[in-house]
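2024-03-11 09:14:02 INFO worker-7 job=invfold-0412 stage=load source=structure_tokens
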């Protein structure tokens, strides 16, 4: 059994049999290995669970199932099962460079006042259209931070476990529940950081 992990990664899914193994492959290659993964499936109709089980020998993985198809509920359920100092919520269709968690650990060590964070992203399709969208999203996050209206995509939100024990995702919200979570945390006086590096790969599907 993994001793006290530093990161707990919570991944909600619904019918992600194709994308989830790719993310697990990236996690299995991470240069920083002190992490656990909590996969919370919302009653998928495909082979998401079967594909997930194949990775139990390569990463420290716990699989939770719920009949409630609600991403906030799934994040909250997964968050309750975590043991790490930090929880990172991410989407099943993310991709990660192998140094991603090492880079996040470095940023947190350098900026120890951080309580909640997100990062800049890259899009997988490097066409002019998608590069423009990439710049718009990253710049938008910077502008909102400078305006004191911090936001984050649910594809990548890290928060201290001690804070998550007090503040959860609002399960009644169907849209922008991720940014509302960030807003509630920062309104409570906690410190938000936006890291420009390392970047994760964001799916534009």
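2024-03-11 09:14:09 INFO worker-7 stage=emit residues=205
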């Amino acid at each position: 059994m993994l001793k006290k992990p530093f990161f707990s990664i919570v991944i909600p899914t619904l019918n992600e049999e194709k994308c989830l193994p790719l993310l697990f492959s990236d996690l299995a290659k991470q240069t920083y290995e002190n992490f656990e993964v909590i996969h919370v499936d919302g009653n998928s109709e495909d082979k998401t669970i079967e594909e997930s089980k194949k990775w139990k020998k390569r990463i420290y993985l716990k699989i939770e199932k719920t009949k409630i198809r609600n991403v906030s509920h799934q994040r909250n359920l997964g968050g309750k099962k975590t043991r790490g100092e930090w929880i990172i919520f991410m989407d099943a269709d993310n991709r990660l460079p192998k140094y991603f968690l090492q880079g996040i650990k470095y940023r947190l060590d350098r900026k120890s006042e951080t309580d909640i964070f997100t990062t800049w992203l890259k899009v997988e399709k490097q066409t002019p259209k998608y590069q423009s969208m990439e710049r718009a999203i990253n710049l938008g996050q910077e502008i909102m931070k400078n305006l004191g209206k911090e936001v984050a995509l649910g594809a990548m939100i890290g928060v201290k476990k001690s804070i998550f024990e007090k503040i959860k995702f609002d399960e009644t919200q169907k849209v922008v529940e991720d940014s509302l979570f960030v807003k509630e945390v920062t309104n409570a006086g906690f410190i938000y950081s936006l890291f420009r590096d390392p970047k994760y790969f964001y799916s534009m599907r």
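2024-03-11 09:14:09 INFO worker-7 stage=report msg="The two ends are 36 Å apart (CA to CA)."
2024-03-11 09:14:10 INFO worker-7 job finished
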